[in-house]
């Protein structure tokens, strides 16, 4: 199983809005970066992703599950980009801030630290375990 991180600004699409979608989830549309696109293509049904509030909050607030693999993004008029469907899986007991991640030496190589602008990122199993522990799950 691979692990991921997806970013959303809470004023555009928050964790609470994701939770409200329930088991049917929601399409993760609007990704317009080719590296992030490749990460979406690599996602498999059943894999998990950290749900990160970017710009506003800068914190991981929960875990989402990939429920549908990559398909053409209906919001992309060029036909070059894809989306996946995700659903809320589990909230963090304590949000894990970007500052806390940067303060943890074991997370110095995490994509969130190294490639801060990338909206869909891989997460290593070691990073996954440590961030989950920091978040109380």
Automatic annotation (TrEMBL):
Pfam families for the chain: EVE
Signal peptide positions on this chain: none
Chain ranges of the EVE domain: 2-134
Annotated InterPro entries: 5hmC_binding (IPR052181), EVE_domain (IPR002740), PUA-like_sf (IPR015947), THYN1-like_EVE (IPR047197)
Superkingdom of the organism of origin: Bacteria
Protein name: EVE domain-containing protein
Species assigned in the record: Bradyrhizobium denitrificans
